[in-house]
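Quick one, tokens below:
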């Protein structure tokens, strides 16, 4: 399996800048978490596109900023995983969240991108303590960028 990070646009006008730096940052995050990179795809899309995926695959009828589909594989040595998955990110939602939090679009986008990676690594965010740990990790890796 190849180790690669892909960026795809799906029915949205969006240009991701700094791709090489982002790939290095994502790789470094995975290595810091003592995991191995497999294939990760970021699919940038609209609210409507992501809503349809949310309805069809998760039976959720609401907007979200990211949906992460985990295809990771366990490796036999050192309980390491090969991190693989698809992450659908709504550019509409990122814009709205950035505006409501008064932060730059790029900062919110990077937070959501690393949030998806952390899910692939195994972090959860349904319970309060899990959310706090997820946010702590997001901030840690955002500071390393």
């Amino acid at each position: 399996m190849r180790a690669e990070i892909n960026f795809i646009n799906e029915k949205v006008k969006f240009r991701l800048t700094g791709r090489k730096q982002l790939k290095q940052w994502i790789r470094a995050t995975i290595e810091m978490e003592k995991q191995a990179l497999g294939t990760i795809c970021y699919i940038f899309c609209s609210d409507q596109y992501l809503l349809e995926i949310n309805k069809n695959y998760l039976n959720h009828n609401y907007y979200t900023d990211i949906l992460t589909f985990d295809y990771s594989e366990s490796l036999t040595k050192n309980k390491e995983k090969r991190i693989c998955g698809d992450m659908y990110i709504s550019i509409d939602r990122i814009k709205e969240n950035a505006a409501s939090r008064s932060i730059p679009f790029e900062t919110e986008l990077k937070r959501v991108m690393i949030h998806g990676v952390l899910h692939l690594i195994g972090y959860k965010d349904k319970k309060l303590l899990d959310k706090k740990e997820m946010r702590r990790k997001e901030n840690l890796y955002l500071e390393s960028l």
